[in-house]
Amino acid sequence: MDSRVAIVTGASRGIGRAVAVVLAQGGGRVVVNYQGRSADAEETARLVRAAGGEALVVQADVSLEADAKRLVDAALAAWGRVDILVNNAGITRDTLILRMKDEDWDKVVAVNLKGAFHMIRAVSRSMMKQRHGRIVNVTSVVGLTGNAGQANYAAAKAGLVGLTKSAARELASRNITVNAVAPGYIDTDMTRALGPEAADRLLPQIPLGRLGTAEDVAYAVRFLTSDGAAYITGQVIQVDGGMVM
Ligand code: NAP
């Protein structure tokens, strides 16, 4: 039985939901975080239980420090420990730099980057005490390549790589690994919002010839949280069908 306790931010839909379900297989206990869509989060919890795990649904906006702390405290109150943190919550507000408003910049950085910082800080003390932890941040290949129309998002995701490596160095002596996965073009609400023409345009750039699934990303996250990945820290694994290499 794998009864480890995981917090997955942004687990109501898409990649976060797939990560929650995959970590639940074999008995994992999963805190299913969401921001606004409670019915979707409850559906994730149902899938977690169907997969053999336990679920606790907690609303929290990770861009708010108090919410991030409350999210970690909820896990500790329910199960007394946190073994795995997956910083998956993310948003986009795409537009060209010339048209980008400060609030579009600030909001995207606040959720994608500062949210992960809030969560890592909130979870660190208990992970350090137990001398074990696995943290996985969900960045993006766009953080490695840049993307026209996504300066805010690409900057936040590139920042997440720096945060990953810094946290990896700070926490390694306590047996806590910190890694990132960088998805390419994954079929979720986030990319569906771009319309079918975006998929048609990007498909020729993907050597494996298909869009990624949320599960493709979830299996990479699960590997990085596994005992088999104990000697891997500060790394970024791309899950992109070969799109960026
Ligand atoms: P999605 O389907 O749009 O889901 C986003 C999730 O984040 C939802 O669960 C949402 O909660 C949650 N969320 C948003 N703001 C939040 C906040 N302030 N606090 C807590 N939760 C919040 O996105 P996705 O495609 O699965 O993406 C998941 C992650 O992968 C993101 O970090 C994204 O940047 C990254 N990524 C995605 C792709 C892709 O192709 N899809 C590629 C590269 C990287 P509600 O449902 O309650 O709104």
Give an account of the 3D structure.
The protein has 245 residues and is α/β, with parallel strands linked by helices. Helix content is 47%, strand content 16%. The chain has nine helices and seven strands, in the order βαβαβαβαβααβαααβ. The protein has helices at residues 14-24, 38-50, 65-79, 102-130, 142-145, 151-171, 189-192, 196-202, 214-225; strands at 5-8, 29-34, 54-59, 84-87, 133-138, 176-183, 236-239. Strands 3-2-1-4-5-6-7 form a seven-stranded parallel β-sheet, sandwiched between helices. The model has no long low-confidence stretch (mean pLDDT 97). The protein binds NADP nicotinamide-adenine-dinucleotide phosphate.
Class based on secondary structure composition and strand pairing:
alpha/beta
Low-confidence stretches: none
**Shape annotation:** globular
> Roughly what percent helix?
40-55%
Mean pLDDT: 97
Strand content: 15-25%
Distance between the termini: 37 Å
User: Secondary-structure element order, as H and E?
Assistant: EHEHEHEHEHHEHHHE
Largest sheet: 7 strands, parallel
Taking all Cα atoms into account, the compactness measure Rg is 17 Å
Strand order of the largest sheet: 3-2-1-4-5-6-7
SS element count, helices? 9
Q: Would you count the extended β strands for me?
A: 7
Ions, cofactors and other bound molecules? NADP nicotinamide-adenine-dinucleotide phosphate
